[in-house]
Write a structure and sequence with these properties.
Elements lengths: L1 H11 L1 E3 L18 H7 L1 E6 L5 E6 L1 H5 L5 E8 L5 E9 L9 H9 L3 E3 L6 E3 L13 H32 L4 E10 L2 E9 L5 H10 L3 E9 L1
Antiparallel strand pairs: 1-2, 2-3, 3-4, 4-5, 6-7, 8-9, 8-10
The structure holds zinc ion (ZN).
Zinc ion binds next to α5.
């Protein structure tokens, strides 16, 4: 199935990735993106490598949404046996939706190199050629390390929060609020604070807005 899909993709050079373009029209007042610009970039790009490996790439959604956003590709490493190869981001900061062409995308994709994992020698992104936090490890070694690290970090974080909750409770606070906010274009963050009375969505949104951000969602924990 994968092989058939891949050879189909190869024959075409690309396939539409299913974005239907709805919503782009809403952006018209901010900048003009012609149909041909969008069609040229809104595809899956495929690069065949040796030994059954391939890279597939698509332009990040933020590039289509914001005219100043640098040209960024999400690149996925596909392995013949179906083992996940992971993904990474290739960026050209001199290009945006305003001046990028499909040739720029192909050039970015062609610059990505795959090298043996520094631990187990499975295929891995060469960190010198693409933005990745894998540090030269293959996806499986990376995930193994990550899961161990996350377990330790989560436990440490849980203890920190419990300690802080106790402190704040002793100072008269009754609630901890965790808010997911958007600061600028595609810049999301989480913020936490305490309150003596139960917050509403309206008051939470107002507080976030005063800091120049937009409230995406929030959770309230009773201390
Ligand atoms: Zn490995």
């Amino acid at each position: 199935m994968l092989r058939a899909l891949r050879s189909g993709l190869q024959a075409l050079g690309h396939v539409p990735n299913g974005r239907d373009g709805r919503g782009w029209n809403n952006q018209k007042e901010r900048f003009t993106m012609t149909q041909s610009t969008r069609d040229a970039l809104n595809r899956i790009f495929v690069r065949e490598l040796t030994e059954g490996l391939s890279l597939t790439a698509e332009v990040s959604l933020c590039v289509f949404m914001f005219p100043g956003y640098p040209l960024q590709l999400k690149v996925i490493l596909n392995r013949q046996d179906g083992t996940p190869g992971g993904d990474a981001f290739a960026v050209n900061r001199n290009r945006s939706i305003m001046n990028a062409t499909s040739a720029d995308v192909v050039r970015l994709l062609n610059a990505v190199a795959i090298q043996p994992c520094s631990r187990c020698s499975a295929p891995a992104f060469d960190p010198a050629t693409i933005e990745t936090n894998r540090g030269g490890l293959c996806e499986s070694c990376f995930l193994q390390d990550l899961s161990q690290r996350l377990d330790a970090e989560m436990e440490q974080k849980r203890r920190q929060i419990a300690r802080r909750d106790r402190q704040m409770k002793s100072r008269g606070m009754k609630y901890r609020i965790a808010a997911w906010i958007r600061r600028g274009e595609c810049d999301y963050d989480k913020e936490e604070w305490y309150a003596a009375s139960a917050p509403s969505r309206k008051s939470t949104a107002a507080r976030v807005r005063r800091e120049g951000s937009t409230l995406v969602d929030f959770e309230v924990f009773k201390l």
